[in-house]
Records
---
Amino acid sequence: MPDKRYWLFKSEPSAYSFDDLMNEPDGWAEWDGVRNYQARNLMRDDMKVGDGILFYHSNAKPMSVVGIASVVREGYDDSHGLDPKDDHYDPKATKENPIWSMVDIKGERALGRPVTLDEIKLNPKLKDMLLIRKGMRLSIQPVTKEEFDEVIAMGGDSAN
DNA sequence: GCCAACGTTGGC
DNA sequence: GCCAACGTTGGC
């Protein structure tokens, strides 16, 4: 996979945690409900099957990267926006133009230990991560292979 | 719980 | 097309 890319997905563990992903009965989950155009474009246009994902817990104690996941289905229509009863309903979405996209992801493995936001901020190799840029709220962010590998190394995972 | 930063909406 | 108001995110 010559052009494998790497991403960071944020999730509030009170809403959906890495354990929830690992415990999915089917082994994978729809990453639905993203309602931000920039994040949508990344999912719709740039993600490929096999891409690596750092799974980050926001609004958590501690805030940290807790596990590794991967893309198992490339961007497709997020039909949840069409359902008025769905939490992620968007009144502007139509069958002809659902507006939003999602990917499917699979939990790979937990890190040996969580890598906290504080540690990421202190690591000079990770100083350019979007995650620690002031005001950066994007829930899906690209990361470089070097950053991806560094976080895994910090988490004490030797699997790759 | 607070609030800064940011995206979106809507009046003009 | 500008921009103030508003809602949300997410660290603190």
---
Amino acid sequence: MAKSLPFLTRPPNKVFSFIALCPQPFKIRPLDPPPFRFPASTLKFLETHYSSSLNLTTHFYKNKDDYIGSTFKPDKFYASLIDDSIHKTHLNQIYAKLLVTGLQYGGFLIAKLVNKASNIGEVSCARKLFDKFPDPDVFLWNAIVRCYSRHGFFGHAIEMYARMQVACVSPDGFSFPCVLKACSALPALEMGRRVHGQIFRHGFESDVFVQNGLVALYAKCGEIVRANAVFGRLVDRTIVSWTSIISGYAQNGQPIEALRIFSEMRKTNVRPDWIALVSVLRAYTDVEDLEHGKSIHGCVIKMGLEYEFDLLISLTSLYAKCGHVMVARLFFNQVENPSLIFWNAMISGYVKNGYAEEAIELFRLMKSKNIRPDSITVTSSFAACAQIGSLELARWMDEYISMSEFRNDVIVNTALIDTYAKCGSVDMARFVFDRIPDKDVVVWSAMMVGYGLHGQGRESIILFHAMRQAGVSPNDVTFVGLLTACKNSGLVEEGWDLFHRMGDYGIEPRHQHYACVVDLLGRAGHLDRAYNFVMNMPIEPGVSVWGALLSACKIHRHVTLGECAAERLFSLDPYNTGHYVQLSNLYASSRLWDCVAKVRVLMKEKGLTKHLGYSVIEINGKLQVFQAGDKTHPRSKEIFEEVEDLERRLKEAGFVPHTESVLHDLNYEETEETLCNHSERLAIAYGLISTPPGTTLRITKNLRACNNCHAAIKLISKLVSREIVVRDASRFHHFKDGACSCGDYW
DNA sequence: ATAGGGTTAG
């Protein structure tokens, strides 16, 4: 594999040596310059008027050609002082001199000063300079609008643009792109529309810079049809026009159309540059088309752009999203000082592919290098934390957030609610929820999903009513949360009712909602109702819907309907092990051993193997993984003694294991020995011998708990007086005093 | 005399 990717080797330090080779921006003078004749009066004037801190002498001798043979022109002199190497102190000094010497040469010098201040990021300094000038002309107005929109102060940019019109200064072809950029960044569609009208009235209908700004504006505001209309009227399209419309389609969830326009562009003689390739790569990343993405990668190399930082980020996202996280990491490692966006791309790439530990590791590395994360970094790291399911890790992250600038960030706190819920503490999730002052629909929905995971359906519905009282409208995710909560709690009629009220809020049910309803009905044993529901769906039932039906058939041993669902699943999703396992389990529960064997043969033919089961328990901040019959732990002997002791106490308490169907159940962990060797039992035993009495044990499983273990753990919780929290593949079980929070409804 | 547009993480 490494051989097929020769582009990953990088000559040492090439990225940086290229910068060193970049020529300094000096002016080339004609050979044989005339002799230097600077009038004595000028030198005297300069000496009396300038402080040494400006180091003017050096400046003169460096630029003396500018003054040769001509009388000293102060305005030209000032203009030449304001070059790119200017510092903030110099800006103020020059401005002071302008006032003191009474040299008012019109707005252009101030405009130049403001632009230079903007270039070096001195936004407030630029504004101060602007404010001192009483009667700004269009150059000066443009300078301040541009300064604000370049540095992310979009509201200020729009405000200054509006004030310019109050001052009766007509905008020109340079004003529009700046204010349009501000409008698209916010986004402020209404303001953008007004600007569009002004552009029309001022006759900039064929200015390509202005029109590109409009394309970007409508694309960013989701008005892709309008963006395309403006693009369609453009006669001389530049690479920027094409990039704007391509990225517009890519950002509005139409990557295929974006790619079609790119291929259209390739028929013209406009050559893509690196920004265009970034947009195209994003589209291929969205559709997870690695093959075409690789061909763009080839383009990148051919054009000699393989060391462009931003293209490396795009390539990293592409390979990571397509599952090649190792390749992505090689790109990441090539760069000595990755930007924040680069770190975020790598972390989220890991999270998307289930490499949660690597993601957390990278987050820690970032912290150790004192790189400041942003809310995206933190949100992705929380997602990793939720995947692992470690409550300790969630607490650590929470503590970190509470001391950071993200303490009051709504998006981060929403991620924290989700993380706490997925790490087993619905109470901590609620605590975070309660302290958020202005809850938006995502915050409410996250909490409802959290209750759903823990089977607290009533709480979820109460929250829904509270949300409506607070005047917040639900969205489609809200209903996913509610329906999940209902199906996990057996609230059939409540869920059914909520599903039918989605239309009242103008929300069209998606696959997930239909799947929830099928699950809701099916699990409660209303299999015929569920089947009728599927048959009358307005959209084609997909994998999730048939999967829910099959799983309901397994619980209620409805073989014929289950076979029907399985048949659909095998044609829709032929290489997913889970469906075969479910069907096999259905046969096993009905004691159809021949059929079980047939499914196993079918799986073998397709080269499918069942997933290995494992359980994870966290002791003193360390995650310990167990598989069935696992003897690898250093304290293995003690663990097995504890397992046997538990088994003995279970029998004494009258527990009767139901072995037969479970032993043939492919979903669960096969072992030649006894059922009590299942991984969660080992994890529980290890937890019991490693923690003080009364400590809650928290276990995460990759599969669903088997019937036998579920029954056993209920009793164990009573025998050892411990609360045991188990996260299985789809939900939480809280075992306490011989009962489980799921009410055996799972 | 002065200056402008497009991109990547979630």
